[in-house]
Design the sequence.
């Protein structure tokens, strides 16, 4: 099996299974389709990502249903799919991750200056503007009352009772998305998998909240743009660098350079990333839960893993 076929098979079984029957069928279909694999392999390796190809094809109008018609459309429109896949990034912005991030933010003395690296459209920069329910606990609302967005998160341990006070929010992204742009909003919507109506509704409602008060988003690289943006944070707030679902896009040496840059700022660092990404954090997870990480994310504050978490903020499994 080619590397690309193997990638699509793994995507089908490990990521799409149970989340999107359509993407699962498409990914298995691609893995067994030498002609389409050959087209996909014209793209640079990182651009052959199933989520990117599927998203771009849907964005351009591919029929969302059985494999055959989708496949025929994609082959017929390959030049457009190819060109779009070269320039777009998978920038899924999931507000529900705030439920997990909040568990770490609530431990940091405020007010907070939030600087998110890999912010996409900045939906995770508004943890104080959403309502929450952890497990079957009480609702936690923003200071000025209930939000139009309720984020629910199963939790094995401490329930978060304190809403952080956010004094400043800003983000860095290679390609910041603007919730006030119709095209960017539609791309964000397309990145939600076909059957995930609840995620789509949450995304639309969260985008409305962010539209009313768009954050400062800077175009740049995670590490190179960090110090200059951090220097703009108010001195009387605690600077918190946040990363969620982003550092996987950096190769190992870049990740280490990024970690050093955060250290040099003297900032707190809240990270929600794949549990195996940083060896020192992965060791803590393995020591507590064994080597089977099953695609879970780790929530960490500075050098300590606090909990395992669902990649999209579905649950907190406190260590
Ligand atoms: C999967 S999205 C996650 C967005 C958001 N953090 C969330 O959790 O919803 C990852 C984001 O990281 C950005 N990104 C990837 N590599 C980057 C880099 N080297 N520097 C800055 N941003 C980067 C992508 O453009 C994308 O918007």
Sequence:
């Amino acid at each position: 099996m080619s590397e690309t076929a193997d990638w699509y098979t793994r995507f089908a079984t490990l990521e799409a299974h149970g989340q999107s029957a359509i993407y699962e069928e498409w990914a298995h279909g691609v893995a067994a389709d030498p002609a389409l694999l050959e087209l996909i392999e014209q793209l640079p390796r990182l651009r052959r990502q199933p989520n990117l190809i599927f998203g771009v094809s849907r964005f351009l109008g591919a029929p969302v249903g059985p494999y055959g018609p989708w496949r025929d459309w994609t082959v017929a429109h390959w030049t457009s799919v190819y060109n779009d896949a070269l320039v777009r990034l998978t920038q899924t912005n999931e507000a529900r991750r705030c439920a997990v991030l909040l568990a770490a933010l609530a431990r940091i003395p405020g007010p907070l200056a939030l600087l998110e690296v890999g912010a996409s459209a900045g939906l995770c920069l508004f943890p104080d503007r959403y309502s929450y329910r952890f497990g079957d606990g009480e609702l936690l609302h923003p200071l000025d009352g209930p939000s139009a967005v309720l984020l629910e998160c199963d939790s094995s341990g401490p329930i978060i009772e304190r809403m952080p006070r956010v004094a400043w929010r800003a983000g860095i992204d290679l390609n910041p998305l603007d919730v006030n742009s119709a095209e960017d909003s539609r791309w964000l919507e397309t990145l939600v998998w076909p059957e995930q109506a609840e995620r789509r509704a949450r995304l639309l409602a969260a985008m409305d909240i962010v539209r009313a008060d768009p954050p400062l988003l800077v175009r740049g690289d995670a590490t190179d743009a960090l110090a200059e943006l951090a220097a703009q944070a108010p001195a009387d707030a605690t600077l918190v660098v946040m990363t969620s679902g982003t550092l996987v896009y950096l190769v190992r040496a870049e990740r280490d350079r990024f970690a050093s840059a955060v250290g040099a700022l003297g900032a707190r660092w809240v990270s929600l990333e794949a549990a195996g990404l940083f060896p020192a954090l992965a060791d803590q997870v393995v020591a507590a839960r064994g080597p089977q990480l099953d695609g879970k994310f780790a929530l960490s504050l500075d050098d300590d893993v606090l909990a395992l978490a669902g990649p999209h903020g579905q649950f907190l499994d406190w260590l």
Notes: Residues 3-87 form one domain. The pocket of S-adenosylmethionine is lined by residues 89-94, 97, 118-120, 124, 172-175, 221-222, 244-246, 249-250 (CB under 6 Å). The CA atoms of residues 131 and 150 lie 5 Å apart.
